[in-house]
Fold these 2 entries.
Entry 1:
Amino acid sequence: MTEDTRMSLTTTASSTIVAPTQFMQGRNETYAYRRFGHGAGRPLLCLQHFTGTLDNWDPAVTDPLASGREVILFGSAGVGRSTGTVPPTVTGMAAHALGFLDSLGVDNCDVLGFSLGGMVAQQMARDRPSIVRRMILVGTAPRGGEDIMHLDKPTLARHLGDPTLKGYAVLQKIFFASTPSSQAAGSAFIERLAQRTDDLDTAPGREVASAQMAAFREWEQATGTRFGDLKGIHQPTLVVNGLHDELIPVSNSYRLAESLPNAVLLAYPDSGHGSIFQFHESFARQAAAFLASDAPFAPY
Amino acid sequence: MTEDTRMSLTTTASSTIVAPTQFMQGRNETYAYRRFGHGAGRPLLCLQHFTGTLDNWDPAVTDPLASGREVILFGSAGVGRSTGTVPPTVTGMAAHALGFLDSLGVDNCDVLGFSLGGMVAQQMARDRPSIVRRMILVGTAPRGGEDIMHLDKPTLARHLGDPTLKGYAVLQKIFFASTPSSQAAGSAFIERLAQRTDDLDTAPGREVASAQMAAFREWEQATGTRFGDLKGIHQPTLVVNGLHDELIPVSNSYRLAESLPNAVLLAYPDSGHGSIFQFHESFARQAAAFLASDAPFAPY
């Protein structure tokens, strides 16, 4: 990206790279968010991953989607510059997201939930079905899922404990597969994230990671019949994952798609947790086609 | 479809419903086939399911694909009006398909393999990699797969042994899920098959079913490391299945996509073995997008 292009994006503010951070006073907290793009589609609420902030959205994914609708990147309580503390349950996070939409005056939208954000999206659809039109659940798991974010696994711990890996370099290792092609895609991904240089979010501290990790452990506990709660989510849903995800294995996406009554499953090769960043052109095309549909069924 | 439309299709012969059956003299056998459509894409070889003939291709699937390329429906040895006997192994069937393409002068094509046909497609890609550009594997299983076409399972046997179900009515029961929506799609599917009324194939006898069933049993046996043989298939591949397939469970598609180095997985809700007939509009769109790609990787 050249300097000139950046100027023009600043003018329109229609890119993940330059969209200004805004603040919405909710009932109890002030939420940081970014909102950009336009088009005939419903607004797309984007819910972020473990310890991710507004700065962790890949412009190669969210910019193309912003050409057909408003994209709303949401900072939940206690994350980045949003006030409050991170709830230790997904249900608590869903309550914040619903309260934020209420404050914003959005009573129906599409939701893209990535990883932890995908769990929050499921909970929102259960707690307030009317507010969710279509959902995209990426690299995530149903309640009662398996092997969710166990960072002490050797395959993950060796990168997380590697003192030579700084900042986003850790993301490249754990979000992408170990193949040269996936690692190259990971390198391009972190270069894209680094394109945003102003108006950055606050880096999350240990208390964010700790509360979100507690939420993962709680989410692993099934309530009632395992996956039975998914039967009540009727929204057309697109479930997406990398076939070699170490953080939240793809088996969780299989269970999601099998148990949700109305979900298409799309899984990508040669990729891990960050599959949609690796295959951003494909994902943006698929997601746009899915969101463009008004059919009562998920296939698009 | 009105009579007038049918006349115009007869004139162009560009539909599954009216394409004339042709015969190709191979080295040892004469193969029945149908060839129609045109466009810039590679020819698409279509390989049929257990006891299926040329008449079992759904025009709602193969007609849209014929608008971008030639579609070639292949009758393997011993099936329909092709001469010879059905080999009791997938490898034997792959040899017939390769010999047919040789006789036709096709040295590179795309392949759509459904169920048994998907196994034959995999074997072709292993035995002659140069002849396959891209593959679509629908409702099928890798060598060493599980629960492949066990027709004595109660969920299947109750339909197969039901004397009140005649002809295609059995297909409606076993290719589609038990939900009203899936059964309605099944009913529409068999109505579409019935649109072809002339130049029909010979119905397969018991010896066809028996040899093909032997091929399934042989295919269930892994050779060497389970699924290890898939690592050598580098063609971009699209793996498709219904999430509730009783004939060849979707777990086989999971294993295919996980073990092939270059495969996208697409799975449909509320559907069984016949998912692509139920969601024919979606499948035709997805398949066309996949086949239109020249990328070295499968995501499209």
Entry 2:
Amino acid sequence: MALAFDPASLTYDTAGLIPAIAQDEASGEVLMMAWMNAASVAETLETGRVTYWSRSRQELWRKGESSGHVQGLVEMRVDCDRDCLLLLVRQTGPACHTNRRSCFYTSVGAQGEHEIMEPMV
Amino acid sequence: MALAFDPASLTYDTAGLIPAIAQDEASGEVLMMAWMNAASVAETLETGRVTYWSRSRQELWRKGESSGHVQGLVEMRVDCDRDCLLLLVRQTGPACHTNRRSCFYTSVGAQGEHEIMEPMV
């Protein structure tokens, strides 16, 4: 399917990447932040399944491809500077590789840090 | 006040920065994403007012200092990789410089993009 939206119209960093925040579309919980390149933006819009760019593996990262913990795209939004994406998603299972629903399970304060979320069973 | 939490324990990029997502602590709305360095993390924790690092001005950016649209810090969280922050905030007025509540006011789809949010009056 041809996209009427041009992923090249976004602003990428010098590595060709744009940060993408995944938010649970029902609960509003922020699940994770990862990176996309133009190809992963296009694939995500075309397939309705969230695909990131893995900086460590330097390849397309089809979220949940091995774990089954896929993210269905409900809506993509871009910010005023066109250099950050917000993905409203339907998350299957945990978003985090630690098996927690969200990657943001550690609270940080002036007195130190503590975990606020258990792994899913 | 001495911090028991060491901002140097976070993972910064080659420019010494870490992305920080600001989320409205009451509504759950994602308001914006900006960047922090270790000094702005420390100042934010010490003062309870969110301070970013302005990449364009290359200086500490005390959110709302000129506009009055301050962000009070309710809670800071760090993700599993320690390379992204989530800030739960009490936002005064609009978070976006366009006077919209959130910077993510543009919806993107395969068929193009459209604005979903009006500036605040």
